[in-house]
């Protein structure tokens, strides 16, 4: 219950407390009240004379309220004539010298026609406050912050446990796949109060240039999220199969909520927040798009060649074959652990060739899985 002073008393509902103002001109014209039991009522003024104010009033659930304040739905949509007899009514307030007279009627007649024909939206949007908070958290915690905000379709104050678990596991896997290595510091995750926001913090140390490793990771991730097609943003991804699996799970988790989504990213040295918005339709489209990128059976190739480059930091190799051609790719951890290796020197090598197909092209990725000195 709201602890503020009573805003209005209506016999049928008891004491009402002012909960939010959506539109105002000199005084509130469209506003939301809350009763003793935390139920919401939306008031839309249709006439105001010297001593009499009249509103069309409707009951709201929390999902409808947040859709209004987020600017996702026009205010008139809340007064749908088919909501039910006891969900729409007229409330009239006559101002007296000693006592105001308030009357309620369920006979709204043609009063709905008095609502503006042009769609009207709330002046207040919580989205800007949420985005600003992303930046504030990044600066307060000195950590790059990545928020996933869900709109309609989920409770605004809670994230379902299964959705939370899927997003956490998939986000960790997604960041590890960008550069093909495990993060030095585990992600921190929290939910933001008052909205369905899952907030990820990247507790990396800032370097001499006031930059974070997480900035580079999220730059790649956001590039994929903002690309028209997922294949357009995968060029900088090291472990594409793992990235695609994780990306698919994130989209699937959001898809299950039937929700629009807002991704917002900020770092401690940011001056603004990067924002990416998707409708529920777009989330479903992207989830289905991943299905068009499939792994073809892996092939294995054995050969002799001269090892001319081997980097255990980036996990990359380069071997020159007898015919002069060069094989380049990633190196498995097993091969690295069996080292060190001499350069240049002839070795017998086994590589795994993974093929991927999309609607646009077929690509290959080589991984060195065995390396022994040639006889």
């Amino acid at each position: 219950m709201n602890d503020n002073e009573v805003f209005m008393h209506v016999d049928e509902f008891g004491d009402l407390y002012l909960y939010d103002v959506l539109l105002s001109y000199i005084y509130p014209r469209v506003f939301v009240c809350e009763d003793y039991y935390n139920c919401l009522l939306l008031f839309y003024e249709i006439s105001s004379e010297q001593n009499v104010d009249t509103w069309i009033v409707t009951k709201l659930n929390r999902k409808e309220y947040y859709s209004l304040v987020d600017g996702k739905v026009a205010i008139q949509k809340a007064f749908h004539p088919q909501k039910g007899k006891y969900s729409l009514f007229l409330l009239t307030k006559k101002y007296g010298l000693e006592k105001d007279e308030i009357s309620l009627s369920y006979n709204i007649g043609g009063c709905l026609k008095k609502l503006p024909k042009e769609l009207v939206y709330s002046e207040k949007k919580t989205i800007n406050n949420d985005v600003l908070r992303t930046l504030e958290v990044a600066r307060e915690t000195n950590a790059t912050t990545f928020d996933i905000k869900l709109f309609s379709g989920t409770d605004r104050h809670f994230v379902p446990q299964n959705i939370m678990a899927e997003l956490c596991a998939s986000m960790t896997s997604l960041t590890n796949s960008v550069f093909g290595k495990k993060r030095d510091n585990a992600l921190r995750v929290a939910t933001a109060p008052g909205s369905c926001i899952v907030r990820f913090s990247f507790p990396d140390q800032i370097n001499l240039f006031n930059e974070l490793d997480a900035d580079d990771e999220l730059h790649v991730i956001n590039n994929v999220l903002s690309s028209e097609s997922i294949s357009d943003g995968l060029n900088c991804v090291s472990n594409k199969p793992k990235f695609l699996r994780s990306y698919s799970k994130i989209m699937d988790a959001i898809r299950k909520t039937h929700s629009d989504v807002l991704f917002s990213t900020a770092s401690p040295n940011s001056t603004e927040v990067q924002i990416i918005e998707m409708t529920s339709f777009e989330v479903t489209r992207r989830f289905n798009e991943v299905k068009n990128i499939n792994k073809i059976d892996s092939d294995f190739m054995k050969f002799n060649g001269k090892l001319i480059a081997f980097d255990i930091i980036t996990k990359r190799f380069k071997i020159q074959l007898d015919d002069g051609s060069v094989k380049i790719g990633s190196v498995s951890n097993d091969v690295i652990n069996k080292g060190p290796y001499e350069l240049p020197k002839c070795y017998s090598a086994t590589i795994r060739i993974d093929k991927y197909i999309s609607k646009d092209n077929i690509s290959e990725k080589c991984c060195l899985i065995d390396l022994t000195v040639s006889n």
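Residues 8-114 form one domain. The CA atoms of residues 316 and 330 lie 4 Å apart.
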